[in-house]
DNA sequence: AAATAGTTACTGACTGCATTGTAAGTTCTC
DNA sequence: GAGAACTTACAATGCAGTCAGTAACTATTT
């Protein structure tokens, strides 16, 4: 028989401390990428040594996973709201997010960098992003179908492609905006493209490129 | 007085050897990212030591720059063709590229990973991507203006946002496709979105989202 | 055409730094 | 006084870049 163990609760301020670390990690990973962002630098920002961070999170890989989860939860842009906006409202929310994102390049960059990095070999964030995009595409598709229903039309086969495209423009514009803020209007362009794509679903017209493509 | 120097040409096979290295580097950087892709692994693929690679390219940073330039030149997708396609032809070319890209995930990934990584602190590829996007946006904008002219309409103010958006969807779709090839149709979605955006420029309609946004 | 000088294309060994993770010890708090 | 929240010190890699040396090739000279 081994002796009984008393796990002993974490101290009250620890939760806040962990959040500080996650916040700092998000910043550093955003600025320098996951592979290129050392634990020591994150530790500096919260007045700790890198060993302290490992005490809390076990490994750098697990830290990344928790950073991504944290960003999701604490994020203003949480699309997965409970009030289930009735179709168009979701797209308005996306556009609003693009506008507010113009004021926080740090988070935009973190997202852009980490999502692209996640497709590399052995990256611990991959599962998170796979899942996230699947969920988001589903939500966008639902919103599109709701808008179709409102207008009394059958949801067309283009819904799936449109959903992926909506998320894609937003992400792609972020990269261009980060590279050249003077020449890319993140929010305005997002708005324009989302309008264009939603319109093409609700009220399709013949392609201006002809139909003789592959 | 210093003695005169005889620079002596490089050997005939060296150019081919350098190309082998660039090709291997593109693969490795694509699979693992620039920061996470060691020179030794590139060297292995061409039966060399990493010192040999440094002999040819001087440093890892310079290798990246040359890899990016190399990809541009040798790339089938070279949009900057000389024949100057008369508007719609450029978009058809983009769509065709998306189709052929479905057969070469390696290159797609290299591009996606390296472009996002380029926005991180101190990345040597940044200037390249800044420039590339500027050039590409200009070409797309020209094509859109040409299409407007063909139809006898003034080019609207939306051209700039549309140009950025076209490139953005293509890039964004690539990331989603790399994460989940089973559920994202790279080419079909690109086609759909490009159609939608071009149509929105040529023949704008009222936003389905209302006009009361920020 | 043979000898020779200079240069290229490397290799192998090494340096030095950066970085993740671990282990042992310290203090503070439940 | 036991475990939580650390720190300091260290182990263990991994990696870019340097350097000296070597073989092979090119260019020049004889």
Helical/strand content category of chain A: mainly alpha
Number of domains of chain A: 2
Largest interface: A-B, 72 and 72 residues
Please compute the radius of gyration of chain A using only Cα atoms.
Answer: 21 Å
Q: What is the chain-wise order of helices and strands of chain A?
A: HHHHHHHHH
Overall outline of chain A: elongated
What's the mean pLDDT score of chain A? 92
Tally of DSSP β-strands of chain A: 0
The major β-sheet of chain A equals: none
Q: What percentage of amino acids of chain A are in beta strands?
A: under 5%
Helix content range of chain A: 55-70%
The poorly predicted ranges of chain A are none
Distance between the termini of chain A: 71 Å
Quaternary organisation of the protein chains: homodimer
The number of helices of chain A is 9
């Amino acid at each position: 028989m081994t002796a009984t163990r008393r796990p002993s609760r974490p101290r009250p301020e620890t939760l806040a401390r962990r959040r500080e670390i996650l916040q700092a990690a998000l910043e550093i990973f955003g600025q320098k990428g996951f592979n290129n962002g050392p634990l020591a630098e994150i530790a500096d920002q919260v007045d700790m040594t890198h060993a302290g961070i490992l005490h809390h999170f076990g490994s750098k890989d697990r830290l990344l996973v928790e950073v991504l989860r944290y960003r999701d939860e604490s994020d203003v842009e949480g699309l997965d709201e409970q009030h289930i906006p009735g179709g168009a409202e979701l797209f308005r929310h996306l556009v609003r997010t693009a506008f507010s994102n113009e004021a926080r390049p740090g988070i935009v960059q973190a997202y852009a960098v980490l999502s692209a990095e996640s497709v590399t070999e052995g990256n611990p964030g991959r599962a998170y992003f796979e899942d996230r995009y699947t969920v988001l595409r589903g939500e966008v598709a639902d919103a599109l179908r709701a808008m179709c229903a409102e207008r009394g039309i059958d949801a067309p086969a283009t819904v799936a492609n449109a959903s992926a495209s909506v998320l894609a423009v937003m992400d792609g514009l972020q990269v261009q905006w980060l590279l050249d803020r003077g020449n890319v209007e993140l929010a305005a362009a997002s708005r324009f493209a989302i309008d264009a794509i939603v319109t093409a679903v609700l009220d399709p017209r013949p392609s201006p490129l002809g139909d003789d493509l592959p």
